[in-house]
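quick one, 137 residues, struct below
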Amino acid sequence: VSPGDCWPLQGSQGQVVIRLPARVHLTAVTMQHIYKDVSPSGTVTSAPRDVAVFVSLCWALLGVDTDGEEETLLGTFMYNVAKEAIQTFPLKNATLPRAFSYIKLLVKSNWGNPAYTCIYRVQVHGKMANEAAAAAT
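---
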């Protein structure tokens, strides 16, 4: 992770939709930002602060109510710049019986930078749908 080598979002809010390699029963999300001492500006105000995690079976359904199908909120969390650069957040609604193909990170606020927000790394934790089914039998 190098300073400036991130997914930049314009402004203090934004979203990223990620297509997962398979349908996954999600359990947690890990987010990473750089440390203040390696930041060229000496600050980490561009780090996400308040984040919501949504999932869907179809990218087109994220945020759209179509035939009763819509995105599902799995949880919210606060990325804390005073803690470790890599932070893992368990998803509260991870006990859903469905596996999902898409995840949306909705950044509701950052740590004060009005121009942009940077996401350096996102990791998704869970079990692929076929692994979970095999474990249940």
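The first helix runs from residue 129 to 136.
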